[in-house]
Amino acid sequence: MVTTHQQTPHAGAGRRRPSPTWLAVAIVLLAAATDARPSAAADPVQKPREDDYYRLISIATSPASTGSRSKFWKPAPNGLTLEVSGMDLLDDRLAVAIRKGEVWLLSGVYEDPPEHVRYHRFANALHEPLGLLRDGDSFLTVQRTELTRLIDRDGDDVCDEYLTEAKGWGVTGNYHEYAYGPKRDGEGNLWLTLNIGLGLKSEHQRFLTTHPQLKVSQAPWRGWGLRVGADGELEPMCAGMRSPSGLGANLAGDMFYTDQQGNWVGTNTLHHMRKGAFFHHIEALASAELPSSPLKGITSVPSGVPFPEALKQMPQLKAPAVWLPYKKVGQSATDIMVDASNGKFGPFAGQLFVGEFTLSSVNRVFLEQVDGEYQGACFPFREGFASAVLRLTQGKDGSVFAGLTNRGWSSLGAASYGLQRLVWTGRTPLEIREMRARPAGFELTFTKPVDAKSAGDITSYRMRSHTYLFQPQYGSDEILARDLEIQSAEVSADRLKVTLTVAGLRPYFVHELRADGVRGDAGEPLLHADAYYTLNRIPAK
Amino acid sequence: MTRVICKTIPADVRRHDRRFLWRPWKLAIFGNRSSRNPLQVAPLLLLLTVCAARAEGVEPFVAGFDRFHLGSPNEPSGGDLLLTELNCTACHGVPSEHQTRLAPKLAPVLTGAGKRLRGDWIASYLLAPHEVKAGGTMPRVLESMPASERPEAARALAAFLAEGDFPEPEVVSTAAFPVAVSFWLKGDSTRGRELYHRVGCVACHDPDAAFQPDKVVLSELEKKIKQFDLDDEDLKELGLTLPQPIRSVPHGDLPAKYTRHSLTLFLLDPTLVRPGGRMPSLKLLPHEAADIAAYLLPNDSAHAAAAKTPELVQRGKALFAELNCGACHTHQAVTSKPRSAKPLAELTFSDGKMPRGCLGSGAEPAPAPGQPRFNLSQPQQTALQSAAARLAQVRTDAPSTEDMLRLTMEQLNCLACHQRDSRGGVGPRRWQFFETVNHVDLGDEGRIPPPLDHVGGKLKQKWLETVFRGKGDVRTHFHARMPVFAQHATQLAKLLRTADQGSIPAHSLELNPRHTEIGRALLDTGCVQCHSIRGESLPGVLGVDLTDVTQRVEPEWFRAFLLNPAEWKKNTRMPTFFPKGKSTRQDIFDGDPEPQIAALWSYLADIEKQPLPDKLEQGKEHNFNLKPTDEPIVLRTFMENSSYHAIAVGFPEGLSYVFDANLIRTSYMWKGGFVNAHSTWFDRFTPLTRPHGVVFPLPRTTFVGKGDEAPKLTAGAPRGTPSPLDLKFRGYRLDKLRVPTMLYQHETYDIEERLAPTEDGHLRRRIQIRDRRESSPPTTFWLAIASQLIRPVAQGEALLNPSWSPTGRVRVKDREQATYGRRGVMMVGIRVIDGKGETEVTYEW
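^ Those are the sequences you sent over. The predicted structure of the assembly is below.
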């Protein structure tokens, strides 16, 4: 790119000849091209790219007319403001809820490239619906104030009845009181989750409830996960949520939710929702003494201590199944989607995929049960979405729809909202598919046979463990970090598994693995060499 | 081998182009980068050194000198520029009154340089700087030692330079400023290529010959040339000049020098390692820097630092001092003071020839240790001589502001983009790379950096500084970015202000708070058609936002510019609203421009507290005002004076009501417009929705009891008291006309409530009760219609709050149902017989 402009201007158009300047540029470019070869030859194996295995197709993405945090936010001047807040399948179509309060039916979404997508409005006048679930012929959605069933009585694909299935949680008018869901568990129960109100002011006071001992105040059931009975009764199940924007069941039918870093929440987390569990945000305990609460009798809470210590001090406090270390695995976790495609979405059947708002990506979670409790590992999976990933839904062909919107916060990517589809290309990436806890270390299962030499070399791995501070301040650093010694790495005969013996495992700590040295058969590195295992329990055998 | 190559330089290759020969040369010596190892190639380095000493190389390139002084080397101003840009004044002292002006630009920070620059590149660069980076300003520094010792010295220096950590920009990913993990690995060369050609890199550096801008926009001048097929002669006759093609600041062999990681960090804030600020920050976001790095380094390979032994590092450190590197560079590990050389004015020049020291060439006796060789061209030598001679002769002559300003602008290469006094500006070959966002046609002023004539009279000192500090981007329609010149901000702003003092006719604008409304009205006349205010603009408008204009510009410039825009800005699209000094608005202040302009200024000075001009206010509301046309519109929202569980319904007839799904009652009705949906749809902080029109409040309009006897209402029940009946909201249903019917329940009774306009423009409310039980005992549901200041007119008909104008009126269809209770309450008893009951009430206001 080095050249000179020496030429002086010469007479008018038509009489011009190619300038030496541009010839010089061309020479440099040729030189650069020649120069490129040696370095490429030196590194024969190209670094694998996510795009080679999972391809992103944009169905509709759009930048807004203003910044995502603008005081007077405005959508793009034309087109549907597709700020996707909920999705479900309807025959060959995709039903999409959007934040401004509408439900649209989209056809042609499986086309590649999607050139004939059609949009049809099914419902409107919903108050920021943050979920959509098809239930037979109707849809269910959670609005700010209620769970609503949307019914089309006359079959014209336009909703005629907006029936209230359940309501009764507190709403103070505070902006942060988002309500999410519903999702259905393995037994057919509907679940929904409620944000904590943030920055409550005097005008919100009259709606608040206060815990008699702990003196924390929130509107009723704020920061709770609720189950909906057949009669529409709300059953408060578990508490301590901060911003539970994603919920979803695994293949076994157990229900999980994600939380986002903030006060009391050291980093983003994935939790198993079950009756009587308390997760972290103390203000949710405002409702703990209300009649239907399963968390009565709490008189004190730990504060400013490492999380494992807090667990000892408060029996109701349950460790997250998976911590998602900040920045390494996202900055704000959203939706949970189980890969139920039986392999149509690649080698991760049955695993959970977690949306990521700020970094516009999707992460992956492997779960196992130890002593009856869920724990497991998270892995980076795919980045580069056009905007914040708020919703994930698996299509009928196994591909995954990602619903995008970043309004009010910020995200990577050129768009403000939209819909993209992630398609497996059929090529299997070299990845750590599973990471299991063993009595003296971890067992890694790869998606493809690994090179025995590099995978059996302990210097191919590094491990470090840390935990977080349980505190009312925003977030937490990784604390009590320690490098761990990998003592051995045993490769199985089929070269699909490696058992690592690791000294100094600590229960309830996050164990961060970097397997940078592991190579595949073609000498290629792992697509993602890092994994983060939340070791709540060390199995006895 | 090298000699052969040197000899084969074709005679017709311009001297400047010989730099390209470096590449095959280097390959011949080093072979592939992968096999390069300075320790193994020492004999080859030796050969290289011999050749380098004899090769002519390329003289240092100083953009301002090349463009403005090459043709007049006898003028000392060009020499002044070289004195600072070649760091002459880092060693050679100048009289104190010239010290600020002639401060050396200084060279890169070398702490940890070996961690960001490849080790073998550093070694080869030290041996032959003019060949490795043709046009670079780094002199040869190893000349003082025997050729055979130089390769080892270069290796030692390279080893030492890998000591310490280089200053890195801090990149923290936050919720508001997300950055991808390992962002430097994620650059995209296609995007990088776009950015490189768009954001301003090519103002100084070479564009890629193959790059095609989206849309080639011709400058006004180019258009004329094309239209009239003008040639040079014609242009001369017309008094027009095309800016001369301008040479580019060389990149050098970037892949040999940087990794993507180090280049990305460098691009994010070049001044961290190049304190002189000649390579400014272009305010790249982390991913943008990674993209450009990916473009400039298509094939990245791992970083390789120089081979290092403690002895080698020690030797390098000693050499750093010995060679006086510290005169221009800093390195954390070196604290000893650099040596200074003879003051400039004392240098002797004879017969037009420079002294042999720094400016000598290889054939002459070796220089003293620490004395570098610069490889200057003849014009550069002449210019330096003129400058030195002037310094020696005219000791008392303090430099003028204009001189100092010119020098600063040439040092920072401001003139690569901007014109001032008909000097500088974007060169013709680069014009096409300056584009307007989305190619909106705003003329050249919408894409080419503005001329800087009388800018110091236009912009306030503080704003100029803000701009130089990189925080003054008001031309959001530009792709090109104003770079950051933070360390020069105050000085440069002062120079411009002083130089341009008095360039705008003095005139004070009187702030008059009583005239802000007039100013606001005047803005609607023509300003808002092209300018936004507080981010609000008419559809499709793309112009400088006027919000802070009174903070940015001087009032006299504002006045002068408004009176005659073209006088102050050639070819501007800004029209005049005062042709021949007469206002186009004769209805205000009798058309006198002066008070009109003062009123505009008064309004703009108070803009944060003022309402927007009407056209903008209307435009802002317009898109989100819901207007029912052929069917009702429903909006669930947080509603003022109703509830956070509100369901607002607007009818095409201009009637609306809001239902509270929490307390299960109709809260109120209104006539006029419906509501604005922006707060519900798009405002993160969810402010309350307000009814647009005349409200008819219905306090306490709810079921207050069931049974044969009308309930006694408790006195003073506050607003928001729930119904004493246990009611449960069930949602709503839309009928064929898309009119909602609210559904709720009490025990076994389903209650439906439907409000809709009547033909004569009133709202009719129909309530129907059905018992789900097969056998339903008769009973009565008691509904309070309204509870304040009701004045009965007749059975079942009452005036509501008679102090109102116009007065509201309530009529119950079945007048027998109505009774009047205490405290101004009208109650309707709905008899439910055989499980059925209903009522109909009409509201007029």
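Residues 432-535 of chain A form a domain with the Immunoglobulin-like fold (CATH 2.60.40.1220). Helices of chain A lie at 20-42, 50-53, 307-313, 452-455.

Shout if you want it in another format.
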